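Milestone 3.1: sequence recovery, worked example.
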């Protein structure tokens, strides 16, 4: 007997043999709920009207169905679901019916290779590239299909390459050298951003990250598409090397104004979004891992995080925790200044 599960506004029918687990990336992956929550929230915050949405790798259709149910009706003009799995039209229709969406005129369904689908559909205001593995194979056609001011959402689950377990794969796929230390997820995210941007600039499309994060087994970036040679040249001037890693994107990872709005309207994931907002106010690459520094400097104790923040702000440095690491502090202080501040705090405590 098939079973039904619920994610927010959507009921999904799963075959009886479908196990819901982390190992189920293809049809429905519950671990990606936050990924979908944030997509819905971002589009709510942007408050666009009459969007033409392309979902080339739509799988169960849950993301698109959530857009239809959770965004105001005026937001979507058309929404295209595509996946190359066998009998996709029937499979998706079953899910649409379950959610009373089978008669919705905004929906089209196709059962093609994603690249073919993207080449046949231009003028997109939102495209979601959410494969299992690297997104590279779909970026060229997705960027071609993207309109001025359109949003391109990209997920990469090949963390092994981007976060430095497989540096040769990273070089081959992303044309950059990763890092294998506490900064690996941030560096991986910045490498991914640059790679996507390079494809965009080839078409005079400047893809500016408006929201980026790393979570669980994946990295995720939303790009805003601006058109123009000059915008592309400015973008590329932010591609450099950092600590022998890269080239990578050195600009902002997220747009503060957008994140503020998302935090304001969010009904869930507030803690995560607030953290992204806090760190978006500090445009530095990387962060300091307090545990690692204490060990390296052979300090006898770790000052309390609140004390570190107080001391940094007293010295007029900006500082925030980071979603990339439990022990990480992002700050405008240099490493030397940060270490000296830690030592002073311990001296005061006579440690
Ligand atoms: C990770 S799932 C997508 C999850 C979905 N976007 C969601 O939010 O739940 C990836 C999907 O891409 C499909 N896929 C992979 N390569 C494809 C290709 N070349 N053309 C079309 N579909 C493809 C797979 O069949 C799978 O359903």
């Amino acid at each position: 007997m098939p079973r039904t599960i619920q994610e927010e506004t959507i009921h999904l029918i799963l075959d009886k043999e479908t196990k819901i687990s982390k190992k189920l990336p293809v049809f429905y992956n519950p671990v990606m709920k936050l990924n979908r929550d944030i997509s819905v929230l971002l589009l709510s915050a942007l408050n666009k009207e009459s969007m033409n949405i392309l979902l080339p790798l739509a799988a169960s259709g849950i993301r698109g169905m959530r857009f239809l149910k959770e965004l105001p009706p005026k937001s979507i003009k058309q929404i295209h679901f595509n996946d190359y799995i066998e009998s996709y039209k029937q499979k998706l229709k079953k899910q649409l019916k379950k959610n009373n969406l089978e008669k919705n005129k905004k929906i089209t369904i196709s059962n093609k290779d994603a690249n073919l689908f993207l080449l046949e559909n231009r003028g997109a205001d939102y495209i979601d590239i959410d494969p299992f593995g690297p997104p590279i194979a779909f970026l060229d056609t997705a960027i071609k299909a993207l309109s001025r001011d359109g949003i391109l959402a990209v997920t990469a689950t090949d963390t092994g390459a981007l976060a430095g377990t497989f540096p040769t794969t990273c070089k081959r796929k992303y044309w950059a050298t990763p890092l294998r230390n506490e900064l690996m997820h941030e560096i991986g995210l910045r490498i991914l951003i640059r790679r996507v941007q390079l494809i965009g600039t080839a078409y005079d499309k400047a893809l500016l990250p408006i929201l980026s994060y790393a979570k669980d087994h994946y990295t995720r970036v939303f790009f805003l598409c601006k058109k123009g040679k000059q915008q592309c040249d400015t973008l590329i001037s932010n591609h450099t090397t950092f600590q022998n890693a890269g080239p990578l994107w050195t600009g902002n990872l997220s747009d503060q104004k957008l994140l503020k709005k998302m935090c304001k309207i969010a009904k869930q994931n507030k803690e995560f979004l607030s953290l992204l907002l806090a760190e978006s106010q500090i445009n530095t690459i990387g962060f300091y891992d307090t545990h690692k520094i204490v060990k390296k400097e052979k300090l006898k104790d770790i000052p309390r995080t609140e004390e570190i923040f107080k001391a940094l702000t007293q010295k007029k440095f900006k500082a925030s925790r980071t979603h990339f690491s439990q022990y990480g502090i992002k700050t405008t202080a240099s490493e030397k200044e940060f270490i000296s501040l830690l030592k002073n705090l311990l001296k005061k405590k006579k440690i």
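The mean pLDDT is 95. The radius of gyration is 22 Å.
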